[in-house]
Design goal:
By secondary structure, the protein is mainly beta. The chain has a single domain, classed as Purple Acid Phosphatase, chain A, domain 2 (4-Layer Sandwich). Helix content is 13%, strand content 36%.
Amino acid sequence: MKKIVVMSDNHGQHDMLEYVKEKEPQADYYVHCGDSEAAYKEMLTGYICVKGNNDWSLDLPMEARFEVEGIPILITHGQYFGYFNRELAMNDLLTRNQCRVLLCGHTHTPMFLQDGNYYYINPGSTSLPRGGSERSYAVVTIDGEKISCEFKKIE
């Protein structure tokens, strides 16, 4: 069983990077889905990171791929999905990259959606929630073929 802690969209609120690690010290992986607005790349040490639409000065990839217990996972910020037919665009990206789990941010709204063998996870925003959601991050657990997600509220 592996634990992946996922955050996104802290928009320069740098204390959130350490807050999440302190709250989840037993994580196997820490993922940042973009829009950290970190002053420098080293602030993101320990995170698998991608570039968000507000990370202008950071030299980060637009997408990252890794595998956990044989499950291929893709990370992207999500600004290119649009708001109409969003899930179709997400599915297209997953299938083109031969992945089963998509971790993304951008909307500032938590989401956990399963569509057959595909999973779409957005941790929400640690700093600027939208749509009536709370400030949050996600804890994704992969145990063999079982994938679960729990959203953690930031007090």
